[in-house]
Design brief:
single chain; two-stranded antiparallel sheet; two-stranded antiparallel ribbon; 60% helix
Length: 149
């Protein structure tokens, strides 16, 4: 089964990655490099003080610290990013379903008004020019937009 990505999930993940200067095509390597730079005592974890050089990590430190040991590991950061991305995806899917008034799996221009970013870019998202946009078309459009950055 192909996993569907939503507009919200892509925007959210891209925002999280961009906030640290990570390219969408190499988030793992850049995240690891930023983590290693922040880990000034080279113990494989970040304290709250060390995390200050990674603003999103510092802001969400307590939520990221899954084992509540007062430090965050690279694995905890990755797991947190995955959880956040999944939550954003789930919310975006719900928004798409709510906007899809006729439940046909696509949005017309009128239905898309419930999702302002989709409505704003409707014609560009509508790859097959059938007057509707599907979740796949939204995913493909967002993927292409993030590849340009």
């Amino acid at each position: 089964m192909i996993k569907k990505f939503s507009l919200g999930a892509l925007i959210g993940c891209a925002a999280l990655l961009a906030s640290h200067g990570f390219a969408a095509d190499q988030p793992g390597a850049r995240l690891e490099a930023a983590f290693k730079k922040a880990d000034t005592d080279n113990d494989g974890t970040l304290t709250k003080a060390e995390a200050k050089s990674m603003p999103r990590v510092a802001k969400n430190f307590d939520a990221i610290d899954a084992d509540k040991d007062g430090t965050v590991s690279l694995d905890e950061i990755r797991a947190s990013m995955k959880r956040v991305g999944q939550k954003m995806h789930d919310r975006a899917v719900e928004k798409f379903k709510a906007a899809d008034k006729d439940s046909d799996g696509t949005l017309t221009k009128d239905e898309a008004k419930a999702m302002p970013r989709v409505a704003k870019n409707f014609d560009a998202i509508d790859a097959d020019k059938d007057g509707t946009v599907s979740e796949k078309e939204i995913h493909d459009y967002m993927k292409a937009q993030h590849a340009k950055k």
